[in-house]
Amino acid sequence: MSNALASATSPYLRQHAENPVHWQEWSAAALAEATRRDVPILLSVGYAACHWCHVMAHESFEDVEVADAMNSDFVCIKVDREERPDLDAVYMNATVALTGQGGWPMTCFLTPDGRPFFCGTYYPKPAFLELLAAVAQTWRTRRSEVEQAGDHISGELRAMASGLPGGGPPVEPQLCDRAVAAVLADEDTVHGGFGAAPKFPPSALLEALLRNHERTGDPAPLAAVQRTCSAMARGGLYDQLAGGFARYSVDAAWVVPHFEKMLYDNAQLLRVYAHWARRSGDPFAHRIARETARFMLDELRADGMFVSSLDADAAGVEGLTYSWTVDQLREILGVGDGDWAATLFGVTSTGTFERGASVLQLRGEPADPVRFDRVRTALLAARAQRPQPGRDDKVVTAWNGLAITALVEAGFALRRPALLAAAAECARSVLDLHVVGGRLRRASLGGVVGASAAILEDHAALATGLMTLYQAQPEPHWLDEAMALLDVALDHFADPARDGRWFDVADDAEQLVSRPADPLDGATPAGASLMAEALQMAAHLAPGGRADRYAAAAEATVAGAAVVLDRAPRSGGHWLAVAEAAVRGPIQIAVACDSADSALLAVARAVAPGGAVVLGGPTGSTELLRERPRIGDTDAAYVCRGRTCDLPVTTAEDLAATLAPSV
């Protein structure tokens, strides 16, 4: 055997193609090789932007002594968690169950048929060598114990995949309000965000809080959004020079980030900041939304689609590209501008990060914007000469779906048609490349689609993106493609034994030791909560009986997650956003107009709450506009909540009053 990763469609796997380890991709052939040799599988899972994955690679996987031990006693399989989230979910559940915590790199030892019997995360070289020897010895001398452990753990994993318990409370406004109150009780009102360090951007929760404010008029959720969004964008989590958000903050005050930048974070945050800007008119919210969109277009775009991430490291050093000292600022800008920039950006003589350097913050708007633009331009030019973080050019379907939705909604909120055009180009490219033989694929690299089947989140996020785009460009093929994805999901991912329950992998996908069905939202929304959002949209855009099918599935899906909102609302941020839409109807606004430039349609898009469906066009041009005419020579807006409709309105004032919060 030899290292077989050179032709992988994952940049993370390719990073390990020169290791002396005989890495294989996950495949039936690799498992068969373990059976033939009668040795365990050493499964290593990570992703390209992961700092500690790089550390373990340098310490162990590039080391000949470690590689010899791995090659001698194991079949070694390397997995990109972003390309194979199904494998990551199964073995992360095992790791958490065995150790009480998870993370990447993830290191699991499996029987040849894939049953886990020992799991962990990062190991320094000495500890890893000891572990390899101990596992190999146990396999040889205490095989029956290993087999028993594999059976027991696999049984527990199958039990864990049973999903949420039934019997939750009804999904009604009171449930949403209680969930919001519980979330707000966990807010860090000093630094923004929720809970203690490390702090991750709570994108879905912020979207849910905005929707709650729009429904109730309660100022408390909006204030929490403003505090958290301001704190994140003022701190080191946000790139003060080029825009875009890092993965998380290692401290409570958002000062020092873990520097990797993920597409899925920035897409979700673009949506949040655009909605905050739309709702509040705050110039700061507008600026951050604009800059985040620009970052995505400038730094994460390839062939019309969006790639996965930028690395945390450059030249093997975390944060090297982004950290500064006072002397560096003076050298680049001169003493006057250098000292001014140091004060403005919070760069100190002792540093806020490692090696005496600081991560740039911007705790207030600069009093001299002309000077600020000059300084920022000079620092960006200097930064471009530094070692740059690597880029994971893998295109993930679900994350591109999130990006399409965010770009359309930001395009309307910021009045930037170029963002709508970028969303349409992304949608066309993903559909052209990632749909193969009528079925969706998970990822591609450099125009070559991978073999991994799409999972639930891919179908749901892309369907939502396409239907959001359809509301901007009512071209039938966007809706047709979205409905095709939803029909596949209903046929292959829905649990036939329980309405409203979803599996993350299809019934005709590779059979693993358990079939993942994670209902909780994490860094990205759960596949099931994304599917609920997609079905809500489709119920109002699809024709006839298909709409009824989607509506019933949406209602059952949201109802099944009520227990999350009741018991652990911070683990259900996107569920809460979907529930907020559900208890308002969801709202549909159909604007009968003869022009895409209709002033009333623009108002509808500006005042419609998050989760509403807004569609404009001539009478009869779409399902939502069937038998809904203009009033005389005046454009008319038809507002419905679920199956209950108001009388049409023809003025911006009346439309705003119709959609005002119920207080």
UniProtKB/TrEMBL annotation:
Single GO biological process annotation from the record: carbohydrate metabolic process
Alphabetical list of InterPro entries matching this protein: 6-hairpin_glycosidase_sf, Ssp411, Ssp411-like_TRX, Thioredoxin-like_sf
Name listed for the protein in its UniProt record: Spermatogenesis-associated protein 20-like TRX domain-containing protein
Gene3D superfamilies hit by this protein: Glutaredoxin
CDD domains from the UniProt entry: SSP411 (cd02955)
Domain of life the protein comes from: Bacteria
Organism annotation: Mycolicibacterium poriferae
Record-annotated Spermatogenesis-associated protein 20-like TRX domain positions: 3-157
